[in-house]
Amino acid sequence: PGQVVRASLLLEGVPACQLGSRRLALAVQADASRSYRPSLPAGARRGGNIPPMSEPPSLRTSLVADAELPSVPSESSLPDGSRAMRRSSWKVAVDVPPEAPPATRPPEQKKWQAAATGQHGAAPSWRQFLSLCLGATGVVFGDIGTSPLYTFGGIYLELGIDALAAADQQTREDELTGIFSSIFWVIAVVVCFKYGVIVMQIDHNGEGGSLALMQVVLRAVGTRAAEPRLVGFTTALGMIGTSLLIGDGAITPVMSVLGAIEGLPVESDAVLAWLCVAILVVLFGVQSFGSKAIGLVYGPIMSLWFLVICALGVYNTCRYSAEAAIVARGFNPYWLWHYWFSGTCRGYEAWKSLAGIVLTVTGAEALYADMGHFGRRPIMTAWFALVFPSLVLQYIGQAATLLRRPELLADSAGTFYGSAPASLRYPLLALAILAAVIASQALLSGVFSVLSQAVQAGFMPRTKVVHTDDKNKGQVFIQSANLLLLALCIVLALAFKTSSALAGAYGIAVTTTFVATTVLLYLVLRRAWKWCAGSALLVCLPLLVVDGLLWSSNLLKIANSGWVPIVIALAVFGVLSTYNWGREEEAALLLAECDAEEGAASSDITSSLRIPALEAAVRACGYPRTRAVGIYLTPYDWRVPRSLGTLADACGSLPGTIVLLNVRFEDVPFVPAEERVDLAVISDELGLYQASVRFGYAEPLNAAQGLHATLVAAKQPKLSALLAAHARLPTRASAQVAAPSVHYILNRLHHIVRPEHGPLCRLRVSLYKWLKQNECPAVAFFGLEDNRTLEVCSVRSL
Questions:
Q1: What percent of the chain lies above the pLDDT cut of 70?
Q2: Residue 304 — very low, low, confident or very high, per pLDDT cuts 50/70/90?
């Protein structure tokens, strides 16, 4: 270009990047209005022949992030100096000369890009908002909403079923008042305050969950090199929280369904187990419809459920008004203090009862994990307007009933059904079965959300993620995860057969997730929100005390099936940590190779990793050029894939036209056709080109709408002319036509273990190799099954 433009890259949340032997310090730019893109050279046009910029080669070609080696060539692709930066979270601030002030050049942004950043995103109408509230009621609150079915039974399972009936009247009053006070304040502190007021204010691109908190902290910390221990600790916490949520997601459907159908007049546990399997198959089978459609079906059922338990609570409160007035004293926190330090259940017995009280907040972690499906406002509106008041009234009614009729604890019908009028027993049973079956939906939707985040963050192999609603990116479905969860639930149902045998598994995973979330919340307050240590501790320390008490009380359950979610969580954590470790090892190897290439200045095409080196190698090598068009997929638009040099060395020739193709997935459902493809010319003389293809998250890639069809339909005359006549494999009759053939070349890595590694490292490399081999094949992922596609395998040692 005629003038030199000095640019500083300000990447939000991306670790420090190494430019050869030099370091580029990264900062966070908060003011989007100060973000600009370099103007194109005179005569250049978007999508046309854009000459390479004349900055030093290392500025455009050596940008490597420490942990940014995506398995899917998409959102993590680094920016090319000749094109605008596309991701809304990355911004290029350009320091231009005084004669061209930044204010005269506003950032060029299309409407579809603005939608991704929310600039053109209109607020939902009141009908849409009510629809989201209804869906959230059906999907998010099933687990926590069915807790009244078993909470008091679970509490007195810890204290002793006969303890209440054997006590005198004054003791029963103090005990039930203290229990209700514990229930109310645990719900108020954990759900209303911790999640509703604080945690759900934090999101990562609209998503919630442990990984979202982790990403917010890492974005604030910036570089791994600056604080490696903090980055490692935060990453481990995020993976632990995600693993525990998945472990809980495998337990909850089995517990919910078994607990619901055990009220049926069937004596055989084996028959109940197989009936549970049949219901689970149906439950998992409808997941592909998406949380929006499921919520519209489940929403009215769960709304009816909450209205019924609210009415039942009011009925019992009015029926036993004197007892209800005594129990209502529990709203005063004094009775919480009295229960713990002065009452008959003080000390150890009060601590043991927390293992049952925690059942009132199981599913609270799903509120945050499901935030990407419905959003914070609809979820919290449904909670405070319907769910929370219904639960509080129901618990008051049950406690008042127990105060008058303590013998209900030993009744086979249970406290919940015993407090209902006899004429409504069976209709209530039918509704409770429906609600209990729906209860597992909150965890299932949350598991899909966190797994989608794990794939994007690089903790999971490449997986097909289906977006079930083109207006809400957070509503996702993962078929492979759905099948694995179904298989795991079937095994648990057939192995344990009854909900009582699996009851010990409830609570330990949830409470450990609570602890991890609170620690991550402290890190967010300190690093992202810039709170002082005193203010952050003032908020988080009381929450950590509550979470720690709930967690410690559930440790007694580990021997009694509490080990089940722990084993599942450990297996998931092993997968997440191993895949993350493997990607970091690959990133370190790539960084070392880039440094070696910069220092060697070799013209060997097999070792060319960057575009200037490729251009020099093509000029210097003596390989003949064929009439073929070679389209090489690369995860970074600055990087030359290994497959190019490997195939050239094996065949002794190079395609006459070489296109380095980078695929990006934007934060919008659909990308307009005119903005779909950008083509940059590296060298017309050498036939070297760069192409960038953009897809929205809701656009499926298959043989009909894959990469080849997209490139053919693109409004790029040069590219379309090369590809239009070769959309399919040539037939036998046309095989002898002298026309350039089009090949798509993908690179696949084969990992081997270094000889000096020990048994544990060998096991880890083997697991990482297995994960890479079983991820979604790139050929199917990009819809290239019907085209000339080659996969070139490169061997890499870890």
A1: 76
A2: very high
Q: How far apart are CA 304 and CA 306, in angstroms?
A: 6
Single pTM value for the model: 0.75
Instruction: Please list, residue by residue across 733-766, b when 16 or more beta carbons sit within 10 angstroms of its beta carbon and e when fewer do.
Output: eeeeeeebbbbbbbbeeebebeeeeeeeeeebbe
Strands 742-752 and 789-797, how do they pair?
A: parallel
What proportions of the chain, in percent to the nearest 5, are helix, strand and coil?
A: 60, 10, 30
From CA 321, how far away is CA 325, in angstroms rounded? Answer: 6
DSSP string for residues in 510-525: HHHHHHHHHHHHHHII
Contact 80, 637 (CB under 8 A): yes
pLDDT at 79 over 80: no
Instruction: Check: CB of residue 162 under 8 Å from CB of residue 410.
Output: yes
DSSP 675: G
CA distance 610 to 628: 22
Structure tokens given for 303: 């709304």
Nearest C-alpha neighbor of 350 from the set 617, 148, 592, 163: 163
pLDDT at 526: 93
| Exposed e or buried b per residue across 135-170, where buried means at least 16 C-beta atoms within 10 angstroms of its C-beta | bbbbbbbbbbbbbbbbbbbbbbbbbeeebbbebeee
Q: What is the pLDDT of residue 602?
A: 57
Amino acid at 28: V
Contact 492, 273 (CB under 8 A): no
CB-based burial of residue 378 (10 Å sphere; 0-12 exposed, 13-18 middle, 19+ buried)? buried
3-state secondary structure of 254: helix
CA distance 71 to 449: 19
> Residue written as tokens 């916490």?
237
Please, where are the H alpha helices in 748-795?
A: 759-773, 778-781
Element (H, E) at 559: none
Strand-pair category, 677-683 with 688-696: antiparallel
Q: Is residue 265's pLDDT more than 80?
A: no
| Of 147, 176, 151, nearest in space to 163 by CA | 176
Residues 6+ apart with CB under 8 A from 798: 582, 585, 586, 589, 751, 752, 753, 754, 765, 768
The tens digit of pLDDT for each residue in 422-431 reads 888 888 888 9
CA distance 652 to 632: 17
Strands, sheet with 17-19, edge to edge from the N-terminal-most edge strand? 22-24, 17-19, 64-65
**pLDDT value at residue 751:** 81
Contact 618, 682 (CB under 8 A): no
Do 401 and 408 contact (CB within 8 A), yes or no? yes
Structure tokens at 2: 């005629």
Q: Quick one: tokens of 192?
A: 């209303």
Residue 406: other Cβ atoms inside 10 A: 20
Classify the phi-psi angles of 462: left when phi > 0, otherwise alpha if psi is within -120 to 50, otherwise beta.
Answer: beta
Determine the Cα–Cα distance for residues 258 and 679; give it in Å rounded to an integer. Answer: 57
Extended strands (E) in 512-667: 629-633, 657-666
Other CB atoms within a 10 A radius of the CB of residue 124 amount to 15
- Residue 78 above 70 pLDDT? no
Tokens standing for 108?
């060029």
DSSP reduced 3-state for 528: helix
Q: Which pLDDT tens digit goes with each residue over 549-585?
A: 999 998 888 888 888 889 999 999 999 999 999 888 8
363-400 pLDDT tens trace = 888 888 888 888 889 999 999 999 999 999 999 999 99
